[in-house]
Amino acid sequence: MARIDSSPSNTQVQEEYSGGGEHTRPASLLLRELVAHLRDNRTQLREEWARRITEAQLLTAMTKDEIFAEATSVYDNYVEALETGTFEALQAYARNLSERIIPRGVETHEVVGIVLLLRDVLARSLFAKYQTDFTKLNRILDAYEPAANRIANTVAVGFVQERERIIREQQEAIRELSTPVLQVRERLLILPIIGVIDPQRARQLTEQLLRGIRTNRAKVVVIDITGVAAMDATVANHLVQTVEASRLLGATVIVTGLSPEIAQTIVNIGVDLGKMNTVGDLQGGIEQAERLLGYKVVPFAEAS
Amino acid sequence: MEVPILKQGDFLIATVQAALTDADLLHFRTALIQQVVRCRSRGVIVDVTSLDVMDSFASRTLREIAQMIRLRGAETVIVGIQPEVAFAMVQLGLKLEDVATALDLEEGLAHLQQKSESTA
Question: Which ipTM value was assigned to this complex?
Answer without folding.
Answer: 0.85
